[in-house]
Amino acid sequence: MASHDLESWADRLYQTALVTLPDPTPEHIWQLARGQGRAGTAALLASALTGARPSAVPAPKSLDELLLSASAGLAIEPDGPRGGPGPMTPRSPEDVIEVWTESELTSVHAGWSLESWKPRVIDAARWLLGEIQPDNATNLPWAVHVFASLGVTDGLVEATMYAETLLHNCVVQGAGRPDGLSALILLDAARQLRLERTAK
């Protein structure tokens, strides 16, 4: 049952991405990535999706960039931290909530695929459920697969609702169509859910 539900979520995320990228071949994935304002982030996602290395890999400047690079196979996986409650990236008073939330969700998204980071990611995701509304982010569906998985495997209704909100937010601004970066995030989330299902 759980594996079937994970596959249903993967299909849903994948099909939503196809609205923006109907032919997700490696060539078209890279073409879409090059057209994004956040070219570095998009290139890391494209690399994870296609297995191809981008022409230039900027040095990671933050935890989310480091984990995203590692999840794409472009950086050595950093040693996983100890688990514990709270966010993965502490927020300072100067941090704008939308920017910080996006960085935190990106860290959760990328860390999910790194085995030594997964316990910490689960702790952070559970913390986010209780403390941060998903609509505080910037309408990008980072970590949607993490919350979908927690909803399926742990039976957390609030995690399912969180995933639903992240997915809704990324399409509502474009009248039912995710933007280019969101489409790449959804493709990567679907890929990770399918890998998780295969591992079970």
Structural class by helix and strand composition = mainly alpha
- Low-pLDDT runs of 5+ residues are none
> What does the overall shape look like?
globular
Q: Give the % helix.
A: 55-70%
The helix count comes to 9
- Computed over alpha carbons, the radius of gyration is 15 Å
Order of helices and strands: HHHHHHHHH
What is the number of strand segments? 0
What is the first-to-last residue Cα distance?
A: 11 Å
Estimate the mean pLDDT confidence: 90
Report the major sheet: none
Strand content: under 5%
Walk me through what this model shows.
- The chain is an all-alpha fold and 200 residues long.
- It has helices at 2-20, 26-34, 39-50, 63-71, 97-111, 118-131, 144-153, 157-172, 180-199.
- Helices cover 62% and strands 0% of the residues.
- Helix 1 (2-20) packs antiparallel against helix 7 (144-153) and helix 4 (63-71) packs parallel to helix 5 (97-111).
- The longest helix is centred in the last third of the chain and has 20 residues, at 180-199.
- The termini are close together.
